[in-house]
Design brief:
With 389 residues, the protein is mostly helical. The protein has a single domain, classed as Growth Hormone, Chain: A (Up-down Bundle), CATH 1.20.1250.20. The chain contains 20 helices and no strands.
Length: 389
């Protein structure tokens, strides 16, 4: 995950350097998710027939190419989007296959807890990525921030391939690249016929629109808020470091949220967390001119609410489908979620442009409304998919 948020940390700088609109800057962030969703179904389905460690290693090497390529060769919108898409394809071959590696080795009552921890460490990786990007860009320049970050997936691939014990998997000598393998529609229909699985999948899509939209623009929002602070009231730390601390601080929310959901019911907890996160984003945007401690407190609160249902949604899906459909279900779930992730950064940037640009207070409010609308509608969705409890 070390290169995941490098672009988000440097978005304001690269937007100005390449003279991009907010919509174009958002499109580069969305390109990551385009690469992800274009390949994740294949990678995840492949784990049903091939040693998942091999898939994970291949994805790690592809992520290295995307991240290092961005640092060495990105020159503007088109090239930056290309390398972000390659990075996304690499992460697609490691994140969900990594979850499959874990879920195949843990069963019983503790499976939900293990999965919650796994998904929560996405936030740890995001925080480290933001922090490293901020430090390297300030001292070595933005290109080296991308190049050095490529060491992360390289190390991850080696660790998983060498130290994770091989499971008993019936490997196929020939890999089928047909559309039926890439998009297993028949299996997906079986998954979606399960109302609970369908509800968790749709909820994850709405969650990812808000999660990745807010994460992708967090540093830019802090830069906007910093420009409104009174003289002498500036933010006390590097903006990327603040974003890293917020993302890291929000990690326990997913773990604790799953524990709460196990007691009160998943459907009820998901409604509470989603409505709270959508409302908190709007309050944050309104409070952008406030004194920096208030802004940071609201930013932290929003991040906590956004993450509060992450582990619950994933654990709910895994528990709702039979083992023989788990690979296909995780592929569809990831596809829906990261399709939402692809929409989030672009939707935020588009709303920002339509609302009057990054200097307009109303534009930031509309941007947070745009990415939080699906979460605010959670009570309606849960009622439709009443089986998602």
């Amino acid at each position: 995950m070390l290169g995941f948020a490098t672009y988000a940390a440097l978005l304001p700088e690269l937007r100005d350097l390449w003279r991009l609109s907010n919509t174009e800057a958002g499109l580069i962030g969305s390109a990551f998710f385009l690469g992800y969703i274009a390949t994740v179904s294949y990678w995840t389905a492949l784990t049903d027939r091939v040693d998942g460690r091999k898939v994970y290693l291949a994805g790690s090497l592809l992520a290295v190419v995307g991240e290092a390529g961005f640092g060495f060769a990105a020159q503007g919108l088109a090239s930056a989007a290309l390398f972000q898409a390659l990075l996304g394809a690499g992460v697609a071959a490691s994140y969900m296959p990594g979850l499959r590696l874990l879920s195949d080795r843990v069963s019983g009552p503790l499976q939900s807890r293990y999965i919650s921890f796994y998904t929560s460490f996405f936030g740890v990786g995001t925080a480290l990525s933001l922090a490293l990007a901020g430090i390297l860009a300030a001292t070595q320049g933005w290109r080296w921030a991308f190049v050095v970050s490529a060491l992360g997936p390289l190390l991850a691939g080696v660790i998983v391939f060498v130290f994770v014990k091989k499971a008993e998997v019936q490997e196929s000598k020939q890999i089928n690249f047909s559309l039926a393998t890439l998009f297993p529609v028949a299996a997906w229909r079986k998954v979606l016929s399960n109302r609970a699985a369908a509800g968790f999948t749709l909820g994850y899509a709405a969650h990812c629109i808000e999660l990745f939209g807010s994460r992708g623009w967090m540093v830019a929002f802090l830069a906007y808020s910093a420009s409104l602070q009174a003289p002498g009231g500036e933010f006390p730390w590097n903006l990327a470091a603040i974003a890293a601390a917020v993302n890291l601080g929000a990690v326990p929310s997913s773990i604790l949220g799953n524990e709460v959901a196990m007691r009160m019911g998943r459907g009820r907890w998901i409604q509470i967390a989603m409505v709270a996160s959508g409302a908190a984003g709007i309050v944050l945007a309104v409070a952008a001119p406030a004194y920096w401690p208030v802004v940071l407190a609201l930013l932290m609160l929003h991040a906590l609410f956004v993450m509060a249902d992450s582990g619950t949604l994933t654990a709910g899906l895994v528990g709702a489908v039979p083992p023989e459909l788990r690979g296909a279900a995780l592929g569809l779930y990831s596809l829906a979620g990261f399709a939402g992730g692809m929409l989030g950064p672009s939707l935020f940037g588009l709303a920002l442009d339509l609302g009057g640009g990054e200097a307009s207070a109303a534009a930031w409010i509309w941007a947070y409304v745009a990415i939080g609308a699906g979460c605010l509608a959670a009570p309606i969705v849960v009622r439709v998919f009443a089986g998602a409890r």
